[in-house]
Design brief:
Layout: H1 3-8, H2 16-37, H3 39-43, H4 49-77, H5 92-139, H6 143-179, H7 182-185, H8 188-197, H9 199-223, H10 227-254
Length: 261
């Protein structure tokens, strides 16, 4: 599993350049259409026909992007090499709609579960900090030192929870890419087992995702300082999806995701 392999492997598809350009153009159209369609909000006017057309174009373009990327990852995870979907595949938008609805459903369920987990998690932290405060008062620890210790502990605890959640997100997409079935996306029990049995690999992929996100952010900031760079942003954005999700596919193959299905 390598970030550079995730980038280089795109070349295994003979038409990868033309597909990235086409996808970047769709991203650009989606951004322009959505900006135009939502302009009535800033102008505080009723939406017109042009606004509705722009909204429809942005929705269709967004579904095509999701469908193309997820179809490509499904082909790749079930093959021994990187494969992109064909631009003229008839079911791309349908796959995009299916995947979009699956992600929305998964997001709602995950948010509910996460809300409960966070209540319990931070309640335990609060209890620990309260006990720590009592003990510190008994032994005469300086209040400033105690405040610093509690602050550092809360930061570490929050970061640990965030990193653990990131593992669930990665395993969820690893399962979903294999069959593009909603049931795999919400198989929280399977995800927990995967995380438990592949701790080292999980932390490795999370670390590489963080590095890639930082690199991507730096590239976008660098491109945004010029007009030409701003035009290139949608193409870089589209390509970045493949790099990030291809890293998830590599992770799925390394842990042999089939045995968890």
């Amino acid at each position: 599993m390598s970030l550079m392999n995730a980038i280089r492997s795109m070349k295994q598809d003979e038409k990868w350049v033309s597909k990235i350009i086409a996808g970047g153009l769709v991203c650009l159209v989606a951004q322009i259409a959505s900006s135009c369609s939502l302009s009535f909000i800033a102008q505080k006017t009723a939406p017109g026909i042009g606004t509705l057309i722009g909204l429809i174009i942005s929705i269709v373009a967004g579904l095509w992007i999701v469908g193309f990327i997820f179809s490509s990852m499904n082909k790749t995870i079930n093959s021994d090499k990187f494969q992109m979907a064909e631009l003229n595949e008839s079911n791309i938008i349908l796959t995009g709609l299916k995947s979009f609805m699956a992600i929305i459903g998964w997001g709602i369920l995950a948010t509910i579960i996460l809300f409960v987990v966070e209540i319990v998690y931070f309640a335990l932290i609060a209890i620990f900090c309260f006990i720590l405060g009592l003990i510190s008062g008994l032994i005469g620890v300086n209040n400033q030192i105690l405040t610093i210790l509690i602050t550092v502990f809360c930061i570490i605890a929050s970061a640990a929870l965030g990193l653990y959640i990131a593992q669930f997100v990665i395993t969820a997409f690893a399962l979903y890419f294999k069959r593009l079935e909603f049931g795999d996306l919400i198989s929280f029990k399977k995800q927990f087992v995967i995380i438990k049995e592949n701790q080292h690999t999980n932390w490795t992929v999370v670390g590489k995702m963080i590095l890639f996100s930082l690199a991507y952010l730096g590239i976008i900031i660098g491109l945004s300082v010029t007009i030409v760079g701003l035009v290139l942003v949608p193409f870089v954005l589209f390509a970045s999806y493949f790099v990030a999700y291809n890293l998830v596919v590599q992770y799925a193959k390394e842990i042999n995701i089939d045995k968890y299905l």
